[in-house]
Amino acid sequence: MRNATRIDRINSRNRIETERTGLRVADVPTADQLEKQLPKIDPKIEFCNAQDDEHPAIHDFLVSVFQGPSSKQYRHTIEAPRYESLDRLLLKRHDEIVAHLQLVHRTIQFGDFRVPSIDIRHLGTLPEYRSKGLASRLLHHAEYDTNLHGALLATVNATSPTYFLGRGWVPWMIHSESSASPRSLLAELGLPSLNPTPELRRSANEDISIRLWRRHELDALRRLFDSEKATRYGGLARDESDWNWLVSGKGYDRIYVAVRKSQQSTAMQLISDSDDTVIMHADEGDIIGYAVVRHDHIVEMIAEPETGAAVALLKHVCADCIENGHSSIRIDAAPGDPVHDQFQAASGIHRQRQQRNGSMLLAKLIRPVEFLRRMSDVLLNRAVEQNLALPQQLGIAIGPGDSARTVRINLSKRSVNVVEGKLPTDCLTLDLQGFNMLLLGQANISELIKGQRAYATTRTALDLGLALFPNLPGWRMPWEDLAPLER
């Protein structure tokens, strides 16, 4: 009965979503069409969405399959913004959960534009039900629901990437991390590393002080984070609810802020609350940087450029590591960030890799042509930056032979228009995975041609492809993916 109810709900959502987005009906298959596409499974196993009263049973299932999360970590996921129990997709046999998948709603920043996305979590089946097509069925449902939610992109952090790679997914994201001895790094930054004293915590720049962040200063963190969004390709966007969830989740030990002391005021302000109680409040200057720290790991650090705030924060965390007996200090930062050079100058190590802790982040564009349309302003900016002679046209054929989907990019001096239809002379042909990799910046057109995933009909098509779709490996800060610390 619950499965039939879901079919009715999907048909209704399908109609509403098609009207809202203007997609062709063929782009969003009906629920009946979906059922025909799905792998066949035991008819006694039924699909359903989770209900609120099933959270304890779901937690038991996750612990039995994944040996986690803890009760505290599980509660943290339920408290996440935009969480709904209906976004947990289940397969059940006689009321027993035999397979599970969770959809997590996110927004991803691609430079100047944002894309709604779905992150797939905890796809698993009980051992006795594996190799029966259950995971494939749930994954089909997840991709379908991703489409219906209006999301253009799906991601998954997979411990078995081969399973997804055979289903149209592509590797995405680079983990970029540096580590060094805190004493060596302090010496490189210009302070003696022996005998950590209060002086060690003081920045060489006397105009900057480092202290713990206070809860009422959340807007300062948001301002610094948002100031970098234009340079972030693949990072997660955050609204106020995301920030409140992050800071309340305690996936960190402490947050430090760098304060410009030259702006500091010693004057005390008197503020009256609703009970006419007088509160003393000191204006302690402008926050120009922050660092989120978990043990010896700087999870996230953002500072205003050319202020010395980043160096001051690094020195302070190094002192912490020495005091707490840590032999190393680690930091996650974007590829090319100057902080990696500082770590390497201190005889440290810089690593860039696609896998971390045995898992790899993969992505799949659920509506790739719509994603391309969202990129119109970005494509125009790239064309101008590369001094392309405009107007121009570039055709793209996606998929094999006569069944290929054809798209034409019309570039003028003032706008970019993406339409489906007849191809021009200058054309790129790619398989679907190659098209995903091209749009996500995971590979440029030359690399895809070498990998036999694409070819260009003309030299002009190749040059346009290189100019419009550069190699931009994605990177994101890991804070959202950290589980709360067990205390």
What report would you give on this structure?
The longest helix has 20 residues, at 2-21. Strands 1, 2, 3, 4, 5, 6, 9, 17 and 18 form a nine-stranded mixed beta sheet that branches. This protein is of the alpha+beta class and 487 residues long. It has 16 helices and 23 strands. It has three domains: 2-171, 3-Layer(aba) Sandwich (Aminopeptidase), CATH 3.40.630.30; 175-352, Aminopeptidase (3-Layer(aba) Sandwich); 367-468, SCP2 sterol-binding domain (Nonspecific Lipid-transfer Protein, Chain A, 2-Layer Sandwich). It is globular and about 70 Å long. Helices cover 32% and strands 29% of the residues. β14 (297-303), α10 and β15 form a beta-alpha-beta unit. α7 (182-189) runs antiparallel to α10 (309-323).
Topology:
Blueprint: H1 2-21, H2 31-37, E1 45-49, H3 55-66, H4 71-78, E2 88-93, E3 96-110, E4 113-125, H5 134-148, E5 153-158, H6 161-165, E6 170-171, E7 175-180, H7 182-189, E8 208-212, H8 218-226, E9 233-236, H9 240-249, E10 254-260, E11 268-272, E12 278-282, E13 286-294, E14 297-303, H10 309-323, E15 329-332, H11 338-345, E16 349-353, E17 355-356, E18 359-365, H12 368-374, H13 376-385, E19 392-398, E20 405-411, E21 416-420, E22 427-430, H14 432-439, H15 445-450, E23 454-456, H16 459-468
Helix pairs in contact: 7-10
Q: Care to give the gist of this entry?
A:
By secondary structure, the protein is α+β, with helices and mostly antiparallel strands. Helices cover 32% and strands 29% of the residues.
